[in-house]
Every structure is written in C-alpha cells, then in structure tokens.
Amino acid sequence: MDSFNRKWLTLWYWGVGVFGLVLAGFGFAATDGPARAMVELLGNPVADQPDSHLRFAVGLMGCVTMGWAVTLAAAFRAAWALPAAQAAPIWKLVLTSALVWVVPDSIISVATGFPMNVASNALLTILLLVPLLRSGVLKA
C-alpha cells in the first residue's frame, strides 16, 4: 500500500479513537460536553442531568470504540508488514469488522430516533473503503 493510503488509514483509525474518547467523556458530567453536542446534532437533546444508566452505556461504548481503534492500528500495521497476498485476509477482516458495526448500528440508530447517525456511519465506512479499494489490498 502506498504512503498516501497508509496516512489516510492512520488518520482514520485515530479518528475512530478520538470519537471513542468523546463518547467515553460522556461518562462524567465534567467532560460530557462534546458527546452531548454530538448527540444533539444527531437529532435528540440530552437531558440536563442524564441518569447513570445513560452515562454508563455511552461511556462504555466510548471505551469499546477506543479499544477497537487500537485493534485496528495493530491490524493495519501487521497488514502493512506483509506481502499483499498475505495481507488481503487481514484487510477483508478489517472491512468485515466495520460492516459488523455499521449495519446493526445504523438499524438501531433509526429504530431509536437517531437517523442522522446513519449518515455519519456511511461517511466513516466510505472513508475506510476508499483507500482499501484504491490500493487494491482486498484482492486475494
């Protein structure tokens, strides 16, 4: 994979990690501002005093997302160290992990009143797909 696509994907997994950090920040009143603004942008206002269940759920999702970003970084670096034919299965699994997230996440987003999240899911998926398709790394 060329340097441009590597940089693109590096920015992508860092973006996933920062998104996770924003979500994790919702776990505490002192740091919930960015996540609160994001949720409100997606369509629903957040209560002035969110209950502990909501703080737990969103904060935990942020921690999981940060972990996914680190896992993606490891997978990308491992794939970059391999010959293209050996790396293809890793790239396919990375793409599968994104689809396993985006499809049910989008369905849940619509079902719970946050249809705008589907647009952000689509954008993040496209930003992953473009360098994977441009570089040809998905070919076995």
Short recap of the structure:
The chain has 140 residues and is mainly alpha-helical. It has helices at residues 3-25, 33-41, 52-80, 84-111, 116-135.
Task: Characterize the structure shown.
The protein is mainly α and 140 residues long. The protein is built from five helices and no strands. The protein starts with a helix and ends in a 5-residue tail after the last helix. The model has no long low-confidence stretch (mean pLDDT 93).
- Proportion of β residues? under 5%
Radius of gyration: 17 Å
* Average of pLDDT: 93
Largest sheet: none
- The separation of the N and C termini measures 14 Å
- Low-pLDDT segments, ≥5 res: none
Could you state the order of secondary-structure elements as H and E? HHHHH
The helix/strand class is: mainly alpha
- If helices are DSSP runs of H or I spanning 4 or more residues, what is the number of helices? 5
The helix content is: over 70%
How many runs of DSSP E, i.e. beta strands?
0
Shape: elongated
What characteristics describe this protein?
5 helices; 140 residues; mainly alpha
